[in-house]
Amino acid sequence: MIEAAERLAAQEYIEPAHDLPPAMADLSYDDYREIRFRKEANVTLGAGPEPWQMQLYHPGGFFKHPVRINVVREGAVAPLQYDRRFYEFGRSGVGDVAQDVGFAGFKLVYPLNERGKQDEVISFLGASYFRFIGRGQRYGASARGLAIGSGDPAQPEEFPRFREFWVEAQAAPGPDIVIHALLDSPSVTGAYRFVLTAGATTALDVSATLFARKPTSRLGVAPLTSMYFTGANDRRLEDDFRMEVHDSDSLLAHNGAGQWLFRPLRNVTAPSTASFFDQSPKGFGLLQRERRFSLYQDTEADYHARPSYWVEPVGDWGPGATTLVELPGPSEMDDNIVAFWKPRDPLMAGQRAAWRYRLTTLEGGESLHSLGRAQSTFNTLRLEGAWLVRRFIVDFTGGDLAYYAPDPSGLVLEASASRGRVLRTSLTGHKPLQGLRAVVDVAFEPGETSDVFASVTLNGAKLTETWVYTHAPVSDLVTSATK
Question: 2-368: which CATH architecture?
């Protein structure tokens, strides 16, 4: 596989063909969902009473590029062949023109939640995107094999794609399965190996070996993609019964110095990129920390059950930055959040680079550390003379905070801002959360951008994560506050 990626990098990039009949190519999102794989056509991937099975996505709509899919049994490779009898076409209109157009991707099913019931665990569909879930979870955020140029305003983003897959049939029953993939793009090729372990918290061990066709300094390693439309710190809905709508609500980063940085997500009015420079990161992820159904009230989307994704590097990733890209999200159908590791050093033409990491599905991420967690963020905006004053209200819970909630007088709320002036702070107990409520007032000059930080300490030792929030220029603030 690695040799195939290296040979491919030595060749000129060829844009993939997508010669689909118009009835397939022009499918809407809803019509594409009418095409369903027949369960009786499932490809069995092992032995035992309940083995892993594969279902295949039909090309069409947004997914025009075919991919080659192979099954490996005892070392023998068998390419899968298209058959229209695999599918029910419903009201899509594709049934009359169905022909050998290959496959757009695949999903793997396994009895994740209960014996005797096959549940979808992982799905590869579109470019290098994939999604996977743990027990009791619903699809939300996505991962990608690689990002190139995400958040770069100087030139368009490049979307590498998995052009071929090899799925290993199991030698023995169990929750593990191995997937290989060949990645291709104008700038980079890559060989990927995924080891999937399904369970309460499903884990995916990723090994990626990249080869550069041309120089690139825009790599995004272990990229995660999600949707943040509205929430407690960024209200946008005036006529909706739901208080929060998002697949993820925050970025958490564990840097090489041991700090835990927590950054609430925003639905911005202009593209924004935040970089947390680091050496040898220990982990980062997009969290869906808020798990209370009462704040979502959505019985169809089940936002409260969306997974958090946590990336844990294997080996030393060296210098670079955990990077968060926030884009304007006009609706909950738009993925507008991207997080990834950006290496400091560019990848030069002909150069080889390897990355290993574990990607895990979590709930709210409570198991990641023993500190107090930033549970909720609220803010208000007002004028005080010539200054814009923003009040940040942060609720911390968990860790040892329940002990201090009745009397936090011995604790210190440390607050600072990269620009602007911290006017006043307060720290009080929060009995309903068995935690603390921190209030920080910061004054900004009009047009000023600033990062605001807050954490709770005892005798200089951290009791909580370090909460970080980016104050946007006044035009963004006023627009957000009036929506």
Answer: Distorted Sandwich (2.70)
